[in-house]
Structure formats: C-alpha cells, structure tokens
Q: What sequence folds into this?
C-alpha cells in the first residue's frame, strides 16, 4: 500500500483545516458536540503536519491514558501500511509514531504531569481540552511551544466556563493569532439522528445543549427547578404518616446523610454529619429510625455500610432494612431517576442553603467514550444528592408493595 486514505471533511471541518495552515494563526480552538467529528479532524491534521515537513514534533495530549491509547490505535491503522512510517510503539507513557521523514507524533496523557515537562515541539494538539487542568495547559504544555512552536489546536466539548471557554472567547473576539470555531453534533452528516433524538429526550435540556450543541453553561449542574422545589422546612412525624428512608454512609471527611421522604414525595427531614465513630453513626441511625418509623430503609452497603446494616438487623432487630450497592450502573440509574423527579417537578426538598448548594454543584460529565460520570464539582460534597437518590429509589420501589383490598 503506497497511499493514505484520508477522510472527506464536512464544511465546518474544512474551515478548521484552513486555519491550521494559516501562517497568521497560532491558536485554533474548536468547540464541538459529541460525535461531531472533532477527534477525526485532529487525527487528520496531525498526519498532515507530520507528513508535510521533515523533522517536526507533533504532540498529542488527551486527559487520560485510555483516551491516548484509543487515538493512537486509530491513527496507526491509517498510516502503518504506508511508506510514511518508520517505526511505532504503544507503551504507556512512551507512545509514538516515527515517520520516515524524521517527524514524530507523540501521544501523552495530561494526567502524567511530571513526565510531560521539557519537550520542545512544533505542533500541539489538545484533545478534550476542557477536561484538562488549566495549570497543565499554562505551566507545562504552552512552554513546549516557546522555541519552535507553530500551531496549537485545542478541541473539546464544553465543561462549564473554564480556561477552554476563555481560549474560545479570545478567538471569537478577534484577537490576533487566535481563531475559534464551533460545530454541533448535527453538523456531522454521518451522525445518527436517532441517537441524538434519544439523548434529547433523556437528558436535561441544559446538558443536551452542552454535550450535543456545544454550548457553554454557567454551571454543569444536572438538577433542574431547584429554587422552585427547595421550599420545605424540616417537619415532624405525623401520626399515621408513611415514610421511607435513604442513607449514604461515611465515616471520615465525607458526610453521612439520612433522608426521609413522605408519601407525597416531600423530603420532610434530613440529618447530615461527619467525623463520628461507627457506634456514634449507628446511634444516629437508630434515633432517626425510632423518630420516623419508616416503612422501608435503604442504606448504601459499599465499604463500611454492609457491617452497619448487619449490626442493625441482627443486634438491634431492625428488619426492614435493605442494602443498596453503588456501582457505576446502579448510580447512573438512581441519579437519572432523581433528575427526572426534578425536571418533572415530582419532588420537594428542604430550602436551606447547604441542601441547595449540594444539589446545584452535583454535576455530570461525559467521557470521550460516551460514559456519563456523576459527582460533585471539585471542592464540593455529593452526600446529600446521593442520600436523596437512594431515598427516592427506596420510596418508589417499596411504596406500593403491600396487599391491597378493593371494595
């Protein structure tokens, strides 16, 4: 085989490739939705840069090693059978393709910060830049371009208004040497309209706009209508009332949170505490159970949760407890259920600021492989949302499981 089969770019990709060869442009920033062709664009551009001139260094940076490996394999498949390639290696931390003209494409993970320092490069490609720390960009990657640098191409789906957003704004403001571009998932003629429509139906509007339309959000929060639904004061148990309880367990710096919800989907009470011993934690649970007499109690069983559940069942004879095992799949399921509860306004929650803050700073990101990840924003806690999601699961799973008589 003596030629490379490159792709046929769509219209917006063509504009970016033109900017990448524009001598007056140094920083090219691309905001793009999922499956819009942004990584394919960068792969083609890296081959062009490496093959066009001799003895250039193209440096590809991705947020994680798994993403590095995926791109390396894609690119290698395109060039390995051509006369362009002299050698290649895919070792972790030492992944590269060497061209016969002396040019090299090196692939590295931004997570390996110390190993990135000291390189002198001609071209820098940053894949999923919004998911890479600003300090890595400013203090490690940019200095590599000081001596021979010709172009810096940054591509990503947005993640709030971080450094990537500011980089994009510099191009939109017309700053010299900066150009910025944006295209959505729908701009890719090969994208699946069916998949996009499913995502539009299932994701909160703001998240769909971020992930598929490439819009920058002031916040990456996933729960809608918080201010409208956070209206409750703590209540006391009503005689004859029906309640369900969900518990997120922690023994160290994180918080244990106990949540109680009633038959009308009101979060009537919650308790949040940390820095306690296991006996103290169990006593707080026992006191809460005695106060509310919940129909069912669901407790996270991961880590220290399981022995606490066993102790409450066996020693304290609290038999209406079920465990909830948190996995990536089960967490995604209960959080999605809670997202739907907020978006459809089926739930009401306490109005205090701590409660609202944890809901507002609970975020979802989507990895380049398409997997969602739920967690608190950096520097915040997610114990209230997790306890609430477990409680919502408990209430909906066990609210209608008794015997009914119809007269």
A:
């Amino acid at each position: 085989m003596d030629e490379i089969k490159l792709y046929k770019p769509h219209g917006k990709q063509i504009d970016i490739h033109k900017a990448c060869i524009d001598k007056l442009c140094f920083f090219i920033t691309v905001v793009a939705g999922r499956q819009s062709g942004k990584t394919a664009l960068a792969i083609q551009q890296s081959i062009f840069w490496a093959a066009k001139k001799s003895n250039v260094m193209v440096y590809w940076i991705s947020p994680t090693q798994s993403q590095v490996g995926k791109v390396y394999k894609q690119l290698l498949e395109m060039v390995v059978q051509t006369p362009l390639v002299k050698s290649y290696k895919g070792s972790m931390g030492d992944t590269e393709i060497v061209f016969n003209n002396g040019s090299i494409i090196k692939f590295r993970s931004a997570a390996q910060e110390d190993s990135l320092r000291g390189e002198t490069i001609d071209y820098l490609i940053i894949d999923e830049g919004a998911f890479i720390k600003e300090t890595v960009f400013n203090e490690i990657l940019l200095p590599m371009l000081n001596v021979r640098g010709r172009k810096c191409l940054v591509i990503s789906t947005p993640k709030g208004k971080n450094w990537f957003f500011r980089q994009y704004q510099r191009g939109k403001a017309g700053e010299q040497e900066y150009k910025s571009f944006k295209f959505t998932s729908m701009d890719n003629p090969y994208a699946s309209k069916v998949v996009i429509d499913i995502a539009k139906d299932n994701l909160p509007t703001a998240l769909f706009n971020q992930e598929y339309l490439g819009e920058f959000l002031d916040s990456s929060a996933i729960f809608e209508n918080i201010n409208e639904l956070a209206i409750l004061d703590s209540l006391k148990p009503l005689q004859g009332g029906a309640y369900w309880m969900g518990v997120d367990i922690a023994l160290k710096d994180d918080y244990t949170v106990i949540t109680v919800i009633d038959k009308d989907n009101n979060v009537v009470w919650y308790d949040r505490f940390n820095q306690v011993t296991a006996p103290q934690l169990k006593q707080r649970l026992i006191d809460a159970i005695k106060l509310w007499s919940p129909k069912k109690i669901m407790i996270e069983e991961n880590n220290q949760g399981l022995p606490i559940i066993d102790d409450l069942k066996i020693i304290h004879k609290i038999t209406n407890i079920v465990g909830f095992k948190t996995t990536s799949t089960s967490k995604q399921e209960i959080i999605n259920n809670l997202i739907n509860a907020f978006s459809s306004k089926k739930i009401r929650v306490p109005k205090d600021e701590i409660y609202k803050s944890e809901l507002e700073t609970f975020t979802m990101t989507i990895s380049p492989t398409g997997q969602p990840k739920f967690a608190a924003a950096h520097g915040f806690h997610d114990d209230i949302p997790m306890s609430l999601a477990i409680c919502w699961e408990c209430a909906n799973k066990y609210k209608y499981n008794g015997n009914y008589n119809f007269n």
Q: What stands out?
A: The domain at 11-192 is CATH 3.40.50.300 (Rossmann fold). The longest strand covers residues 85-91.
